[in-house]
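Interim report to the steering committee. The following record documents the input for Tim44 domain-containing protein (288 residues).
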Amino acid sequence: MKKTLISLLLALSAVSSTAVSAGSLSGGRSIGLQSAAVAAQVDAAQVDSAAQQEQAPVPAPAQPAPPAKPENAVTGMLGGALLGLGLGAVFAKMGIGPEMASLLATLLMLTLIALAALLVYRMVRRKDTPANAPFAGAGQGKKTPAAAPPIGAKVPPAAAAPWGVPSTFDADGFLRHAKASFIRMQAAWDKADVDDLRKFTTPQVFAELSQQIVQRGAVGEVTEVVAIDAELLGIENMEKNFLASVKFTGMLTSAPGTEAVPFAEVWNMSKPVAGGTGWVLAGIQQLS
């Protein structure tokens, strides 16, 4: 389900990235610290989507023609018997004595019966013999070893660091503050309020945002967050810091009177393991 959602968000973000980048805090770019776990999840969703598109229905194999029905041997035997009786009558008309005619007819019938029995035997023998009879039993006693899988094929990956949300973590409260910070930082970006941005960002992210504000000059922006939702994807322990990845989705306008467009991006929030300070923005990660 999560992979399907990410695939849909990728499509939406590709359509609306130009409009969103005009007024969003990130400018439609990835900045600052990037999460390897988020990148792996996005790559897996893209691979699954590509695999589903490449799959094609396999045509059903052609049905083999039904084998020809063999001739009925019983019918042949009855025909032979009738033929023998007919020949006996012919012998009698030719002046051959009844005893000799009967003997000849009997011999002929026995010959026909023997031929019919031989025909039946060959038919049964042919049916029981497999199609590859000349090679039957060849190679017995030699077990072919199973082929070794190619290097890297279906090799389980190395155990990765746990990535998830601890059961004791107040995810709901964290996401409420995260959405409030998103709206506040977007407003500070529009007003070029670098002092407010400094409170919620790491030095690296603050330096990038400050540089963009200087490049745009005195021109301000008016961005309205029409709708916003947040999902906590996971929290990583990076030795000295915790890194919480929050996926923001929603609608925003880049200028007054413009149509709201969808957006989707991941904010990576950082906090020292030792405590002392709260969560700050360490990086913004795009989903495409």
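The chain is about 45% helix and 15% strand. The committee is asked to note this result when reviewing the revised timeline.
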